[in-house]
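#struct-pred

JT: dropping the chains for the assembly here, can someone run the whole complex?
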Amino acid sequence: MGSEGTSTRNLKGLLLIGPPLAVMVCLLLYPAGVSIVQTLQETAADGSVSWSLARYHRFFTDPYSVANYVRTVWTTVVTLILLIAICLPIAIYLHFTRSRMAAVVQALALFPMFVPGIIVAYALIRYIGPNGLLQSLLEVVGFNSYSSPYLTPWGPVIGLVWDHMPLTLLILTAGMAKVSQEAIEAARDVGAGYVVIFHRIILPLMVDSLLVVMALNVISLFGSFVIPYMLGPASPEMMGPYMLRTFSEVRQPDFAAAQAVITFLTCSVFGILYVVMLTRKQDV
Amino acid sequence: MKRREFLASAAAAAAIALSPRLAFGADGAVEVIVGSDQNVADFWSNVVVPALQQELPDLVVNVTVSDGNSGMMALADRALAALKTKSDPQVDVMEAFNPRNTIGAIDAGLWLDFSKASMSNYAKLNKLAIDTNFGLPYRGSQVVLAYDSNKVQTPPKTWAELTAWIKATPGQFIYNRPDKGGSGGNFVRRAIHEANGRDPSAFTAANFSKEKADAMLPPAWEILKDLAPSLYQSGSYTAGNTPSLQLLVSGVVSMVPTWSDQALSGLKSGELPSHIKLAQLQDLAFVGGFAYCTIPTNATNIEAATKLANVLISPAVQEQIVDQIAGFPSIEWSYLSDEIRTANADIIPKSIPAFPDGEWEAAVNDGWYRNVAPAIARN
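RK: done, full complex below.
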């Protein structure tokens, strides 16, 4: 054995990660890098290239673009808060219950994972839309002042909560595994109420999971496309539809790339957070 | 090793089996490349080709669906290159392709001049449909108004009547964002025409300039901003042709702009209930367009291809276009049966205005989002 064995093993390890790394570099890092650099370059009529922040300056001085950015941040934050508010109680319930009911709840909560976004969008138009099923049901029980969220900022929020529930719930139920029944019972024995148990035992153990939920959801919500496109208002629009429109409909690929870089930088903050979380876990 | 050998020989066998298909165009079959969807290709295989085979029973026609307009552009480029090197373009008929799309092809003599091809049915063509002699119009569609006849007794006949109706019945009209579908897009273009003296010829593919757009488009944004508070939800816009029809069918709004072929096929299949009726503006219609066929002059089977083109615009096939794919005929409606004419009396166009793609389209899409869409006073 000795050093020769180790180096062979190292080589084998490198060979194993080689192909995915090559794919990452060729298909992701290199083209992304090129387009980031291009957003900082300006080609003059005579072909000379100069460095410029003009596209970013344009983005942040254009009230329309800023409104779209703010709308995206708003939608992401509101959706994230709702997701945690809905999924955390379900995760706690699933952890402490072993009934058939719990299995049904879990199956229902994971169901959206198997439904494509475009189908969710059309189904939600029919359900929460004007004269839709929800409105009819409410009218049966005498509630007549329903105002549909379809085509308002709340349309995408509802659709995105639906779409992101399974992932959130999976992470949170996995995190709940750390909360032991014994710890809860011990706390109860010394007279702790539900609020104290949640605040002093469950929450500290769940911080990591909540941060992972936040990081993964923010990345996915911020760049979401189909649901805000179908359910949201024409203006302000989220970054996903705005980027595509600027690229293909307004035919300004350079400005679309600048929008993409801004989106990417915003998301990368949470990406870094996620990577830090992962590496910190390995250190333990 | 056995397995590897087997795989290698199987791959070779598959390659041999596939190779004759790569050499198409050489065996005397007429090659039709369809630029539209599969439903149109089926229409060619089931209606157009059998109609010609009655006359030429031995004729073989291959109908192939291309990869959208970019695929058609590549084919046209190849045909143009083949013209220069005097080789086989490997295509005889191109469906849904505008001959103007390939720059220099018309001047180079790539496309057959249909007006000089001695086709017996050419004189029957509707003059409104002919854009150039090098593209044969064969089916059209146009944006029309779809309305709920239970709520609207007399549909508006002019733009002024339409806007007056929208303002008088707030919340009952919606159109989609102009880049998300032609029905809303061409409603916006109608407002642009209205703001510029109802003269569609003021907009051509070649006359775009930023100064011109800055002068000609803002008056249309004013018209549309003025309408916004009277639209559904005081200024909401759907994300496509289908969501608009969804709101009409569910009784939320009473009128929407829609594509004629989409509405007609919906009415036929029952997706749109029979109280939905269609109407067209009479002062200046909404924008519409025709699908053109082209034939390269260097096509191997140019004679059979020309016969196919002639059958395509025969009254029998044109009636099937109305009946089966809900398109407009490209020949005069008077050549069609009385039955079909009366069934479509409301939407027979008196004119089919056009609006250029390219830079004008981009300016419209950007301008509408920046000027019209944000002007929403939500309560």
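JT: nice. The longest strand of chain B covers residues 136-148. The two ends of chain B are 75 Å apart (CA to CA).
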